[in-house]
Specification:
single chain; 68 residues; alpha+beta; three-stranded antiparallel sheet; 19% strand; SPOR domain-containing protein
C-alpha cells in the first residue's frame, strides 16, 4: 500500500483529453501519460485528436523535415 497517493497536477478550469478513456476532463483526472492538454476550453479539448492529426500532417509536409 502506498504511503502517499499521487494526484494528477492541474487546475480547475484547465481542460484535458484523456487518451485512455477517450473523454474530456476538467482538472485532470488521469495521469499525464494518458492525456493531452491543457486546453483553454472544453471544446478545444474535445478536438484534441483532430488537432493532433492536423499538426502531424503539417509536420509531414514541411519541407524543412523531409529527408530526401
Amino acid at each position: 500500500m502506498a504511503l502517499f497517493k499521487r494526484t494528477p497536477a492541474g487546475k480547475p478550469g484547465e481542460w484535458y483529453y484523456c487518451l485512455k478513456h477517450q473523454v474530456v476532463e476538467e482538472g485532470p483526472e488521469c495521469r499525464a501519460a494518458d492525456r493531452m492538454g491543457p486546453y483553454g476550453t472544453r471544446e478545444e479539448a474535445g478536438h484534441a485528436m483532430e488537432t493532433a492529426r492536423e499538426r502531424n500532417e503539417q509536420w509531414r509536409e514541411d519541407p524543412r523535415w523531409k529527408d530526401d
